[in-house]
Amino acid sequence: MSVTAEILTGGKPVPALGELLPEGLEYGIYGENYVLKEADGEDSVIVFDPACICRGICLDTSEESVTLGLSNVTGAGEIRLFYDLVRRICKIFGTTVFKREDAIVSLEQADKLEEEDISSAAAGLDVMLARLKAGEDNVTIFGALNPITMDASDLKKIGGDPEKLGVFLHEKQSANAYYAAPQVFQDPKDGSLVGVYSVPCETRTIMPYVPAAPFYLQEKVDRWIVYVYISDEKYGYVEFSDFAAGVHNLGPYDAAHYLLELDEAKAEKLIQEHPAKM
């Protein structure tokens, strides 16, 4: 479920993001794997609170309006932030109404809508758990910084509580780690698809237990390798299975990923002992 709120500018100029947003919030744009990257003047960005990183709030600006988008199921704190932003932006443009979905609503209704959306998040969590109990292995949602995969044990701990979901999502995304997202290339020799994960040396990295094609790709990836980067002069390629068997697992990140950190000696050993052809 998603919720949108559109605030008309009334012909007033739209301030820069630094003025439109309260101090302390951060923003960026999604790359092709739903991993956040730095924004560069785009009209549509993902806004989040670094003290409570959940799924991010989409903010679109035009001359006519500012539109906010909330992905629900999300944490209760992010739902409150969404309506705080609605109130703030309405005040900037001197209006007391906004368009929520297809209805014009008053700011006086914001408190009630906020509670309704928190209740909807709780119901959504129950639906997600029911799906897993019915046979699905896990569920992946797009966080503000990167995708996060949850299994039944995660959802049972959250217990249908959006407050606890917010804590869970923030804990995962504040890990201060590089999220290794796949890229896929076509081998010019035979046309096969080769998936590549890049792992930089001396960097805490989030890596999948099992390689998976990017969300946008429908075709089957024929082969998976890991690009191990030490420096511009020192790097190499390792088959995914050899890499996974040869690295020290620092523990799980989520239901589908683990954390690792390669030192230079281990990286060199992997490249020398398990070279993969590119």
Please provide a written account of the structure:
- With 278 residues, this protein is α+β, with helices and mostly antiparallel strands.
- The chain has 2 domains: 174 residues, no CATH class; 95 residues, no CATH class.
- Helix content is 29%, strand content 31%.
- It has an 8-stranded antiparallel β-sheet with strand order 3-2-4-5-6-1-7-8.
- A hairpin with a 3-residue loop joins strand 5 and strand 6.
- Helix 2 runs antiparallel to helix 3 and helix 3 runs antiparallel to helix 4.
- The longest helix has 24 residues.
- The two termini are 42 Å apart.
- The mean pLDDT is 94.
Quick recap:
This protein is α+β, with helices and mostly antiparallel strands and 278 residues long.
